[in-house]
Input
Amino acid sequence: MRILLSVCSRNPESVLFRDLPSWAWNCKKDGLHLAKKKSGKLPVPFQEIETRHEFRVYRKRDLVLVQGKGSSVWDLQGREFLDCVTGMGAAILGHGHPVVMKALKQAETLITCSNLFYNDQRALFMASLANAAPGDLKRVFLCNSGAESVEAALKFARFSTGKTEFICARRGYHGRTMGALSATFRPDYREDFMPLVPGFRFAELNHFESFREQVTNETAAVLLEVVQGEGGVHPVRKEFLQDIARLCREKGLLLILDEVQTGMGRTGRLFGCSNYDVIPDMICLAKSMAGGIPMGAVIVSDRIEHPLGKHGSTFGGNPLACKVANEVLKYILISGFLDSVRKKSFYLMRHLTSRPLSRAVEIRGLGLLTGIQVKGEAAPLVQELEDQGVLALTAGPDVIRLLPPLTISMKDLERLIGALCKILA
Ligand SMILES: Cc1ncc(COP(=O)(O)O)c(C=O)c1O
Output
């Protein structure tokens, strides 16, 4: 069964379905629209097919995205959008970046290599990441996603301390696997999956006393995001994070920073924690590490130990992801690149905060992670943005979240500002 598709985003007529497989014919019998064109070429009902076959866990938006280049994506009808979703922050250099495209050629050499063996690309990437990491964070565990990196950090913390409790922040988000979910605050994400992993306590972000009160003899670690992304784009305050780091040192607790969303330059520094002059015991990374190819990591300090053979990952540290991640990292660290991210971030903030936006309550963020708290629901405004040709996310019920590529041009930034001003006026 072979499907031959020719996708040219700007010309919907060129989306062809030349070799219709049997399951698609079934769709036709069931009345799903496979309208036959005069040419005998049939448009593919991707949306219907996906709806029919997906085990649904996401509320989807009414768009079929088929192509991306730079800061833009195109849908099946050839409509272009400025992409401030970027696969939830994964495409940090935008779509089809030459550095990523070139590194993907590694697939011709070696895609996979078990962690039972050494590998050139893995060694090079680990060395680059450790070199770029602050303090004594010099060893790396590689995995494939954010939740996996958090799971690993929780296990490493339990083993290293011999303790079982964690203090996390209200509104915090760390993923949906059982450990990561136990550290995630949102009751509606948790309630159907009880009992979760025991030992997770929650305190108020940016309220030091609230955290201090939760420390017990069983506390292994404090786990925090540098900017709460999903929870509404709330940056931690510098004094708070420094106080937490001091508390951890004094009480012998570990500090784990979940930088799955804030790492790899998103905040204008390679690691978000560098904005705060804080060095944690572990940094969790994922999303954008390999420019959109699945990858996760935990970078650990000297204080972290774990027994041999009791944690692992089949795909973690595969040569393809490592090669791409190494090239993405090198690109982010090119002199001036992170300066340009900070400049764009200031420009966006300055323009948004200096205009009368009657539907906006507060504009928050760090680097190119921006949240706009609005009056009422954010979802209809995200739809209005889409109608203006800009894709954005929500973060909770009343926040619009923007995760543009760090490579966004000033022209596209102007376009984003224009669209935001229009819908928020
Ligand atoms: C801070 C943070 N941690 C963990 C995760 C989970 O990452 P993943 O979806 O790759 O498992 C996310 C995802 O949005 C995140 O923002």
Observations:
- The chain has three domains: 1-60, 86-90+338-424, 101-332.
- The mean pLDDT is 92.
- The longest strand covers residues 219-225.
- The pocket of pyridoxal-5'-phosphate is lined by residues 88, 145-147, 150, 173-175, 225, 229-230, 258, 260-261, 286 (CB under 6 Å).
